Task: inverse folding
DNA sequence: GCGACAG
DNA sequence: ATCTTGTCGC
């Protein structure tokens, strides 16, 4: 999308099976491969990328937005619909109000009210950008809905693709089966490894 | 040991 | 995330 007009410039998608389970704190391992697949199809070079997930508001300050920002060497922002880690005071009810999110004595993001009286979204820098700029961009990308337009449009596109695929292939895409497919494709040792407490300390 | 836990 | 039931505001 263009900024600040938010015109859609390109729409691309990527379909495949997930090969890693959803584990809080390890979302990148499950979704990054597919996101990279879709991003590889984009012709234009984005100036910045907004992700549906955390940036540095992560136990190890490495949410999916940060992870991919570093990988792609591109500025990124994390905008999650719910909290992973950190504490915050409820922000004011007006659209645009926000309060900082902190963990272990450091500010890692903010709870931003993108819609009056609605649950806030959690914004945190991915990489190559600061918190205040991240908040400003998310707000300027938000219109009448809770989610910033880039993320909302992405969700709508996925819904569109999925429905078309379901009717054309007779058998719908077992979206919930991502669980089933996952268990059958993730090597046993891999799952055991990541199922332990704080596996990154091993 | 118990609770929390992006999508 | 997905699913189901019911409610509130434009």
Result:
């Amino acid at each position: 999308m263009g900024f600040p007009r938010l015109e859609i410039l390109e729409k691309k998608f990527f379909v495949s099976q997930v090969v890693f389970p959803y584990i809080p704190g390890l979302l990148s391992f499950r979704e990054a491969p597919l996101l990279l697949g879709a991003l590889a199809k984009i012709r234009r070079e984005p100036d910045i990328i907004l992700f549906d997930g955390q940036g540095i508001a992560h136990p190890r300050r490495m949410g999916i937005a940060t992870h991919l920002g570093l990988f792609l060497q591109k500025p990124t922002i994390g905008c999650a619909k719910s909290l992973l880690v950190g504490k915050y005071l409820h922000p004011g009810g007006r659209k645009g109000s926000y309060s900082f999110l902190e963990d272990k004595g450091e500010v890692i993001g903010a709870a931003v009210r993108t819609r009056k009286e609605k649950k806030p979204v959690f914004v945190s820098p991915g990489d190559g950008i600061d918190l205040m700029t991240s908040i400003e961009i998310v707000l300027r990308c938000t219109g009448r809905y809770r989610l910033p337009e880039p993320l909302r449009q992405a969700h709508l596109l996925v819904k569109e693709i999925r429905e078309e695929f379901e009717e054309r292939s007779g058998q719908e895409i077992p979206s919930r089966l991502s669980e089933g497919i996952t268990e059958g494709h993730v090597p046993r040792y891999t799952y055991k490894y990541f199922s332990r407490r704080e596996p990154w300390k091993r």
User: Anything to note?
Assistant: Chain A has six helices and five strands. Residues 22, 175-176, 178 of chain A lie near DNA strand C (CB under 10 Å from a C1'). Chain A has a mean pLDDT of 88.
